[in-house]
Amino acid sequence: MKITTIGIDLAKNVFQVHGVDEHGKTVLKKQLKRDQMMPFFANLPHCRIGMEAYGSAHFWANKLQELGHTVKLMAPQFVKPYVKTNKNDAADAEVICEAVSQPNMCFVPIKNGGQQAVLALHRARQGFVKARTVQANQIRGLLAEYGIIIPQGIVHIGKRLPEILEDGENGLPGTFRQLIDRLGNHLKELDKQVNELEVQIQTWHRENAASKKLAQIPGLGPIAASSLVASIGDAKNFENGRQLAAWLGLVPRRNSSGGKPTLLGISKRGDTYLRTLLIHGARAVIRVAERKAAHAGSWLAGVMERRNKNVAAVALANKNARIVWALLVHGRDYQVDYGSAAA
């Protein structure tokens, strides 16, 4: 029988494969080593292949697509409900094969090597930023034990630390001074790494037409624009802007029953990093808009009159996500008064 659908349970070295025919009958159960994957699928007739969006999933998706197969990636939380028995590799491959066959399944866009490289820059920068914050808080906490208080903000540590180390009357032991000097140098190195990665991201941003187009939207800079372009890929994979906003977790979570609609807070699904960038960018827009006379009477002003600033920031982030979809799909440039001009 011809294999039409295959589910692959990914791993580092051992992969479990489960295949069915057009009638849903199991015709393939096989375990493959890493070096056996490409020869096996190269000799297999073209079929649909499903995988969970785990580590190395995009690599294998690109490799299998080069062989002519149709590859679909799924978020693990959407595959989990199809599990019927205890967990093992064979059972996982079977439920992946079943899940990818569902007509209403939500799929993850497959990223190419260029997109993965840009997102790797973002993830590395994000890691350095977190490490920098941890190091700054550690320095501030250690100095507080000796009665030296530094105001919040990393910039204050850079300004105050040389003065503290040079002050011979603040009662700091020599060993402690050496430690603080070491931690300060580590903080400077982390800050240097963050700045260098930002330069690389901005260089990519200036060379990418779609990223520069998104940066025209208020609340989106080079960091947010480049990460959105690299993560979304082909925006036509989403039917409309609301679907993209839902993919980012910016739409209300529903808990409706008995015909009574109940809307809760945002679902927070999807990429936390992208959602954070959009919401923080919206907060910046709100902070600036409050000081402008032209802000009165705008859509954002109306939202802020009815809701608090946090809700308004999420609403603006949702709106920006829909604008992102429209610009990428239709190839337009951002226009401030687009709605008024159309009316």
TrEMBL record:
UniProt cross-references to Pfam families, sorted A to Z: DEDD_Tnp_IS110, Transposase_20
Tree of life domain: Bacteria
Chain ranges of the Transposase IS110-like N-terminal domain: 6-146
Keyword tags: Coiled coil
Record's keyword annotation contains Coiled coil: yes
Name this polypeptide is given: Transposase IS116/IS110/IS902 family protein
Record carries keyword Cell division: no
NCBIfam families: transpos_IS110
InterPro entries noted in UniProt: Transp_IS110-like_N, Transpos_IS110, Transposase_20
Gene Ontology biological process terms, A to Z: DNA transposition
Residues in the signal sequence: none
Coiled coil location: 180-207
Residues covered by the Transposase IS116/IS110/IS902 C-terminal domain: 212-290
GO MF terms, alphabetically ordered: DNA binding; transposase activity
